[in-house]
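User: My advisor, Dr. K., asked me to get a structural model of this assembly before our group meeting. I'm new to this, so sorry if the format is off. These are the inputs:
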Amino acid sequence: MMVATSPEIGVGPAPLAVDLRSLYESERSSLLRLAWLLVHDAAEAEEIVQDAFVKAHVSMARRLDDPAKAAAYLRSAVLNGARSRLRRRQVARRHPLAPIPPAAGAEVAALAELEHERVLAALARLPRRQRECLVLRYYLDLPVADIALALGVSAGSVKTHIHRGLAALAELLEDRG
Amino acid sequence: MTVEDQLRHALRDQAASLRPDPGDWPDVARRAAGVRRRRRALTAGLTALAVVATTAVAIGALTGGEGDQVVTVDRPPAPGTTAPIEPATTLPPPPPVTGAPAPAVHRASGYQLLWPFASLEAAQDWQAGADRQGSGRLDPAATAVAFARDYLGYEGIDRALATRVDGDDARVTVGYHDAAEGDRDFPAAVVHLVRLGVGDLAPWEVVGTDDADSLTLTAPAYGADATSPLTVGGRITGVDEALDVQVRQLGTEGPLGRACCPPAGGEDQPWSQDVAFGGARPGTLTIAVSTGGHLAPVERFAVTGVRYGAG
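Assistant: The format is fine. Below is the predicted structure of the whole assembly, which you can bring to the meeting.
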């Protein structure tokens, strides 16, 4: 078993069963983008992912010793963090999520980009659970079973959310088309 | 192009346009160390409390004995949301019990009857009914879990982690299971119940929760008269908490009012939320507040009872 320590924190060795620092370097970008797609705010996405790794660091040092579960754990933590942020916003903003603004520096206003913005705007109007299922399925390409694990729901429920989400998305795109 | 393809391309192109910086691993390690330090301090504190409590019990056993098992009707409960401010539900005296070794006086007077019975009469009707066996009402742990999961709608709160019965009082620690966080159980609240009626076949009634340091519900006061809108508040310790406040009443499907989710957090910080409600009948209302979203939708909750239309 690989044992990693945390020399920079000065509290003695923390026996990590997985090399969390390597995971941080390899998975952070993907998790950051996942969070960004869910909360539509780059700064909040950064905080969500950072918080997820803090939780993972604490959990793995104590008990989460299966490296295979680490990625799934981090995904769940990011999803929970995103939900928490969105719930807080609901009071101040009682309308659906605004579409993701174009990335800074993106100057190509091609038709494809406009089409993407249209799709993302429609996605933002879906209920939270449908939105999460669709992002996990079509951004991360997760199988239904992994989505169910990440969201803490049954596989059947995930299928239903994906089916309804796609139907609603198609309807919204048609209406606007 | 199908909707799936459109969505896939849109998500990937959009995600790819984000250019993450290298991140800050030392910040992760530093904050994790802080969390572990706080947990160690908490564990040490709880251990010290346990030692003190064990010592107190041992001293009580040595100096007291059976003579201490005196049951009083209005014994002040421990501080917390369950503390009755004034009697709200006037209950008739218990029927005489002939041949009983102890004056099995019920303890409900002064408490708000939250769930599952609205009155002693309702409990007695249930007790006289043929369906009482197997319903779980004679089990304080099952009653506490059903209160959280079925009545308050906290679906993830599905287990009793500890049960302490002291005569006609019971305190049940209810909680949830998290597979990702080490595949273990986490406590969410300590539900306070009293036996409603006389004897071992009297059912248990939820009358409140004990305040935990990390989440309290102190306003409105237990047993206070309530009107809509209601200002609900207390104190909280936590990070990125989102409070969900609801007002419920027995016999009504769903909450009468709800306010979600004012942000809260910090160290022992006050929180407050106005919640409007409608459709209440004269009687007791249950006010519940929950927070979660880190490991589970509901990770902590607290309740209190108030009176509506009593005047």
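One thing worth pointing out at the meeting: Chain A has a mean pLDDT of 75.

User: Perfect, thanks a lot.
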